[in-house]
Amino acid sequence: MKLHFIDVILPIPIENSFTYSITEAESEFIKPGMRVSVPFGKRKIYTGIVQAIHNNQPLIYDAKEIHQILDDTPIVTETQFQLWEWMSSYYMCAIGDVMRAALPGAFILDSETIISKNMALEINVADLKDDEFLIYEALQHQSSLKIQDISNIVDKKNVLPLVKRLLEKEAIFVHEEIFDKYKPKLVRYVKLQNKFHDQDALQVLLEELSRAPKQREVVMTLFSLTARSKKPIPVSDLTTASNSSSAIVKTLIDKEILEEYHVQTDRVQHDDQEVEGSKRLNEAQEVAIKEILDSFENQNIVLLHGVTSSGKTEIYVKLIEDAIKQGKQVLYLLPEIALTTQLVSRLQNYFGEQVAVFHSKYSSNERVEVWNQVLSNSPKARIVLGARSSVLLPFHDLGLVIVDEEHEQSYKQFDPAPRYHARDTAIVLANIFKTKTLLGSATPSLETYFNAQQQKYGLVELTTRFNDVLMPEVELVDIKDKHKRKRMKGHFSDRLIEEMTETLADGHQIILFQNRRGYSPIIECETCGHSPQCPSCDVSLTYHQYRDQLRCHYCGYNSVMIKKCEACGSVELDNKGFGTEQVEKEVSLLFPDHKVARMDLDTTRGKYGYEKIISTFENQEVDILVGTQMLTKGLDFRNVKLVGVMNADNLLNFPDFRAHERSFQLLLQVSGRAGRTDKRGKVVIQTYNPHHNILQQVSSNNYLKMYKEQMDDRYNFKYPPIYRLIKITLKHRDYNKVNVGADWFAKSLRQVFKDNVLGPEFPPVSRIRNQYHKNILIKIPSKQSLAKTKASILKINSSFSSVKDFRPIRVILNVDNY
Ligand code: ADP
Ligand code: ZN
Ligand code: ZN
């Protein structure tokens, strides 16, 4: 008799997949891509993905039996396996790391999983099987249960299938960071009671209401709205159209003239507006789209370099239309923050229900929903609009990939592994599907522009804004000079104040950009110079006035603001530097009659965090919006005429070889928020260094000059895109251990890579959460084989961890470090 085995990928960072034995009957049923629950180690249970089915008994260990098959059909596709393999080898991580990043938490239950009752949904217990009921009941008394507890309650070992059933019934959810609790979105509708559907009855009613003209108006309006369209009428539409209030509607409901009802709208859906045709492109856009299509004839990747507000999005829309007409799926990648209702409803206007949205603030259940729709090639997920991790969805027949704002560094995942770049991964994904990728940006990354110059990518340029609005006028204000001449009020120069006053007088809005949050990043004693530091990290604590706290931006440590110096006891404490909180405060003092809001990490927590701020600004309930780089990402505000950059210098002085490129991108992007519709916008940049090349290039909107100059540096100093980089970080809480380990590691690397090894070096913040960090950088010339390079690094890494003293040191490999 033949023995049957499966290779299973487990969601943990181990190098190899694991082999388990299965029965003959199981072997006929199991297919790659299905989930199985399996024992691992002494006590653990994991959900794994079947990668292969075979008859080869493992030589080193006895294959254990699986516990259970969890799926009837595969949930992971063949192409996903290809992508996972690529990611794991390219980014030097375990395939299990990729699996964990790809699958929604609810898909990979294990013995450590914690579940809770879903409070949002009333479950009919009659629908529950006996064992399901036992668990559901236990959750009435306990807020959460571990898988082990469930095992005890039902007195069974293999409970994952049971948990899975409860998840599918939405009786429970997997415990995770919960943002706003999901509430089914109920829309209130009204209709006339049936008895008034008859003409005569309605006539009588209207006569009766002649003494209540407001109520009569509501009924008349409802009647005419209903006559115009068969669609249900939301209460809000009715009150607007009849110019009445919901109180009057309520009276009519109480009098049993109107009837109200609720409809639960689909969970992962925003507005249910009517679909409209896409816009007619202008001439420049027409030319651009023709060039893109021509370029796609012999290029797989095209860069659309179009200035801010040139109408790139409308071009994407046309290309998406073509792709879905051919029955294909489309992936549209965006930085997290740009994924707000602004763009979502813009696309839903064109494509209605065919748009599915996917981002990290979604709950596991919502992600499962999108996953299943993409997997089943549902018409509800023709177009996936998503942030980084949406490249990992189970696409079927992908026909186009769009990466908008391709220069955004948030496309690169920092931690944990896989430390992948979503743009580059999306290109690989498109290749697997033999389809095309369009990268779009007003300020392309040097990497991408270099590839275009090398003719590895096609290049299409759009140099004018839509409607021929001029690019905003940029004014550089020398604040050193302004300080000297006493022309500053707080952190505002007279020029900025003048421009603000004028803009507000014209009824326009203002964006103020400051690259730091909090009130002040350093508190310093005027007597002895001491400044409070984080106990676990090597950074000074930022003062947050709103909570009267000192906070560490690296580890989250916080304490009450000190009243006197911890060192000498002096009460003379000074603020050094300033953050968004302080700007907000100063603005409200300077312009007390105008509304100010702030958008930064502190004000945008929660699922709808950004949405709320963005929509109040869009609705012009706020005149001045103060914020960090969040403001720069592809937002389209129609009434903003002025952008103020409070201080450009701390961007430019950041210790990183990409600092200048990034400053250019950030400043140009934030400037691009000004004057997007008709009148020319204005940008005021305050700086101590108005002659800085980057600022000059920003003010003349000269991307090419920036590109050439930065590329010279990259050539000279052997940095990307000329060389590739792999960064190795060693971490441990013992300073000496990190030092000795890093020296050993670097020395071994130098034997192979000679001068192309830099470091080891402590980064500017060398201790975070009590762990010392030390970095080694490997520069890889384009002619050197990447595969061989990685193989050597892995070999050195495994000798490193075989040294007993070094084993506790964490080693992090970061390929294409951004
Ligand atoms: P980008 O993506 O390049 O920043 P957008 O696509 O957001 O630019 O376009 C800027 C503005 O111009 C948007 O408000 C958009 O609706 C409008 N717009 C762009 N193209 C057209 C068009 N062909 N017809 C009408 N309006 C357009
Ligand atoms: Zn002091
Ligand atoms: Zn800290």
Concise description?
This protein is α/β, with parallel strands linked by helices.
Description:
The protein has 818 residues and is α/β, with parallel strands linked by helices. The chain has 7 domains: 4-109, GIY-YIG endonuclease (3-Layer(aba) Sandwich); 124-172; 194-256, no CATH class; 283-466, P-loop containing nucleotide triphosphate hydrolases (Rossmann fold, 3-Layer(aba) Sandwich); 473-517 and 579-712, 3-Layer(aba) Sandwich (Rossmann fold); 520-577, Single Sheet (Rubrerythrin, domain 2), CATH 2.20.28; 723-815, Ribosomal protein S10 (Alpha-Beta Plaits), CATH 3.30.70. It has a 7-stranded parallel β-sheet with strand order 15-16-14-17-18-13-19, sandwiched between helices. α11 (283-298) crosses α12 and α22 (659-671) runs parallel beside α23 (693-699). The longest helix has 19 residues, at 735-753. The radius of gyration is 30 Å and the shape is globular. Bound molecules: adenosine-5'-diphosphate and zinc ion (2 copies). Residues 279-282, 285, 306, 308-314, 466, 636, 676 line the site of adenosine-5'-diphosphate.
Which SSEs are present, and which pair or pack?
Layout (H helix, E strand, L loop, with lengths): L3 E6 L8 E5 L1 H6 L5 E6 L3 E11 L9 E2 L2 E2 L8 H13 L4 H8 L11 E4 L12 H12 L2 E3 H8 L5 H9 L3 E3 L11 E7 L6 H10 L4 H16 L4 E2 H8 L3 H9 L3 E7 L18 H16 L2 E6 L5 H14 L3 E5 L7 H11 L3 E4 L5 H12 L7 E4 L11 E6 L18 H11 L3 E6 L4 H8 L4 E5 L10 E6 H6 L3 E2 L2 E2 H12 L3 E5 L8 E4 L16 E3 L4 E3 L6 E3 L12 E4 L3 H11 L5 E4 L9 H10 L5 E4 L12 E6 L3 H4 L6 H13 L10 E6 L5 H7 L3 H15 L5 E10 L2 H19 L3 E5 L5 E2 L2 E11 L4 H17 L7 E6 L3
Bound molecules: adenosine-5'-diphosphate and zinc ion (ZN) (2 copies).
